[in-house]
């Protein structure tokens, strides 16, 4: 009877998480907000949230989306205590959510996102699967190109108030990723490991600088934001594969954006061109 009871509880939990995944995906698809999962679902932790995200991922692929890489959230350790996390979070990004810009300027429609915010980031593209290593040079050896990108994040929970598990279930708050011109690792210049740590970036809205950041803001370096250790602890998660891109987390604060604004970036200390994005309704 004990085993039967455990099986019944497992089935009940599975059904509950399937229902949450359906609700969460519907909110994403219909551009609506829902009540905090962490506040109304007993025991809703990161393990449960990643299962919800996995179910949503399966549904996305069944609809025809193809995963092209991952995004990382919470790479700024200063935010860990605020949201009760002790490591970065992640989600898949898709051919339906990643846009490769044809130049340094692009446009983005905001009406499909809830409470959108802008995050300037560094995007890594892996030509080979990275090894289990913390050595930046080992990681860099697996990367064929690097780009500057801008991720638009969103929250399907009101006023950007949530716990870490809520954000995991909401696919790490991913909206869209706008990828600038890829630069070959060999073409960016020497001492790239150091440059990725030390470069600076300014983020402006309509010509006014709103925030600044540096490469070391993301776990010390974008080369440290590669998910290897996080994925290794998640039995149902695939390790990073050759051909995937990883966008490594925001270099500045995540700032609210509005239709009609044009936001731009300038990077100094690394040969990655800035990006300018005009936001339409």
Short précis:
With 281 residues, the protein is of the alpha+beta class.
Task: Explain this structure.
29% of the residues lie in helices and 28% in strands. The chain has 9 helices and 14 strands. Strands 1, 2, 3, 5, 6, 7, 8, 11 and 12 form a 9-stranded mixed sheet that branches. Strands 4-14-13-9-10 form a 5-stranded mixed sheet, with no helix packed on it. The radius of gyration is 19 Å and the shape is globular. The N and C termini lie far apart (58 Å). The relative contact order is 0.20. The mean pLDDT is 93.
Structural key phrases:
281 residues; five-stranded mixed sheet; alpha+beta; nine-stranded mixed sheet; single chain
Average of the residue pLDDT scores: 93
Rg over alpha carbons: 19 Å
By helix and strand content, what is the structural category? alpha+beta
Question: Which consecutive residue ranges, at least 5 long each, have pLDDT under 50?
Answer: none
Series of H and E elements = HHHEHEEEEHEHEEHHEEHEEEE
Number of strands: 14
**How much helix is in the residues?**
25-40%
Major sheet size, sense and barrel closure: 9 strands, mixed
Could you give the distance between the termini?
58 Å
Number of helices: 9
Question: Per the principal axes of the C-alpha atoms, what is the gross shape?
Answer: globular
The percent range for strand residues is: 25-35%
Classify the oligomer: single chain
